[in-house]
């Protein structure tokens, strides 16, 4: 049981290695004499329960649960929100036995690098055993958030049947289900407030799930289905929106054209978040055709703060959004291939913008315009239109520099480019001291500073040194071990680090593993780090959520040694493609994570657990 | 700024650069493409010791790109792809006219990967020489210049915008006589 307590604690510097038995310290009130009767215990427990109810942060709760047995028990009974960062770190049974009154669960499955086809799709992270266990024990469940899980239609059906109070379903980057599963949720979850589907891979079973919502007024507040790439019955959607007075967030898929969008908007002027679907008409509109007054429709949405969508944009219609620009805090143009000329008239109204996602089609010039207007910008993401190594990318160090000079409050950046300089990155490190997330992807592998031809070490070094709040870092370009020495030296708060095609030797990885005490998630690909480097992290792996290393210099023996030294670590070696037999020594991916459960029973053939 | 056409020409010959290898940094022939003399070679050489022999057993996949790089999710890539293919249903056919030719042709833009591809095909189809594009001069010096009408109805010189942008905005093509095209070429 003491091991449970140590393992369940997420992050935090306090987590001990599971082998150390934590004796319950705490006030053993009844141990003294007969004077303190059991009722005093009960009073204390009651007080504790009531106080603990106010504790919402899971880190605080983890700490509280380590105080004593009674605190552990009280905390377990009062925890309502459960966060499980790795679905294989703990079993459904163990979780449901410890925490009895859970109302909200967040569950994460596959590692992030799996998104990039680095391992076969059937790796695992099945939702089925979880929904079965929770259906049994958590009848009062209201909220569920899943990320990178394999969710089947049957699972959704079981979910819909098992939880009468179910209110919020959020699925991010999940797959395995289709419109039939959605239909189950729509029809059976009568109290549904939130149905958010983001970047899921949804199978088109040709079931009209929108029509499956029950008749009469719904409690829907959020309906996000832009990733559901299936035809929908527009009339059914229109009626649904009409009878959902609480609807605040609506994100449509690309099968809704702008004329249909108009009809929805006039039914729901109370929207705060809108995803426009395809921002073009269904057929060619000739000059002089009578078109709806899109500008008025947008103007009527006085509460609109977040705009996204614009799939298949016909830029002629962009001016329709001018009325809402001044209020926007979040704008997502990352599916809209628009130029600087098209962006500028929009962005110069967006004084309150905090979050902006764009494609690099807006060029450095567009980013200049952003920097000039969006002084409150906190998060910027620039995605590539042409996601190839040797493609053209019209954004560069110039755009990055402009942003750094204009947007001093920047906290989070994701920037894809082909050309970068250390100078621009260093400038950003100084101009934007609040940066928490810095992810720079120079798309050509091993690309140096394009002006000085030097490695990008100094740029990234400046980021870790000057951005004192940095917790997440993704590096790219030509990098030597020196870059990693900087990260180890200065990146004391770094929790997530992503590395690709970087470093010279084992020293690179050693610097990081020895220097970054808060490191939780480390994902590395195609870098020359070997067994000796892997070994240098032994003191830290129990504190981490996972380590991913693919196409590095590891050997099976080296990984096996880790598995032997750390019994509570699950060490998976994975083949990159399903057809290949697991050869003796060769593997593509090492994925290892701490777990209370030992090797999982559902590992497919291409996975070997050492 | 390098134009796509010029870089494509060198790609055509430099097959090694597009070969997928699981070799480690420093053994990557793509490095040789860039100016290698200024970089800190010593640091790079240190990792070009034995290629991991085990990794070499793997045959590189057929594609010329590395798996999963750059790290953009397929979902996002597919969304941008969709727009292209949806434009005309199953293809992106545009009419092509050439000054002096008796009748028009139609081509499917989706079939081509780059400007170089397209221009080669046009030259073949119409038995003409189009020449080399430069940002400054356009197609100056050649017999013909390829132009296109974009979504806004303007006539543009082929080659100015990134390929992807061109493909989504091109409505029809016209191969103009060199003398007439001069007006477009120099601004």
Automatic annotation (TrEMBL), chain A:
Region feature (Disordered): 1-32
COI1 F-box domain sequence ranges: 41-80
GO terms for cellular component: nucleus; SCF ubiquitin ligase complex
Pathway: Protein modification; protein ubiquitination
GO biological process: auxin-activated signaling pathway; SCF-dependent proteasomal ubiquitin-dependent protein catabolic process
Record's subcellular location: Nucleus
Domain Transport inhibitor response intervals: 101-146
Keywords: Auxin signaling pathway, Nucleus, Ubl conjugation pathway
Protein name: Transport inhibitor response 1-like protein
Automatic annotation (TrEMBL), chain B:
Gene3D superfamilies referenced in this protein's UniProt entry, alphabetically: Phosphatidylinositol 3-kinase Catalytic Subunit, Chain A, domain 1
GO cellular-component term (any): nucleus
Predominant subcellular localization, coarse grouping: nucleus
SUPFAM superfamilies, per database record: CAD & PB1 domains
Record keywords, A-Z: Auxin signaling pathway, Nucleus, Repressor, Transcription, Transcription regulation
Protein location: Nucleus
GO process annotations (BP): auxin-activated signaling pathway; regulation of DNA-templated transcription
Record-annotated PB1 domain positions: 91-178
InterPro entries assigned to the protein according to its UniProt record, in alphabetical order: AUX/IAA_dom (IPR033389), AUX_IAA (IPR003311), PB1-like (IPR053793)
Region annotated Disordered, chain positions: 24-67
Pfam hit, one: AUX_IAA
UniProt function note: Aux/IAA proteins are short-lived transcriptional factors that function as repressors of early auxin response genes at low auxin concentrations.
Family membership: Belongs to the Aux/IAA family.
UniProt cross-references to PANTHER family, sorted A to Z: AUXIN-RESPONSIVE PROTEIN IAA17, AUXIN-RESPONSIVE PROTEIN IAA3
Subunit: Homodimers and heterodimers.
Name of the featured protein: Auxin-responsive protein
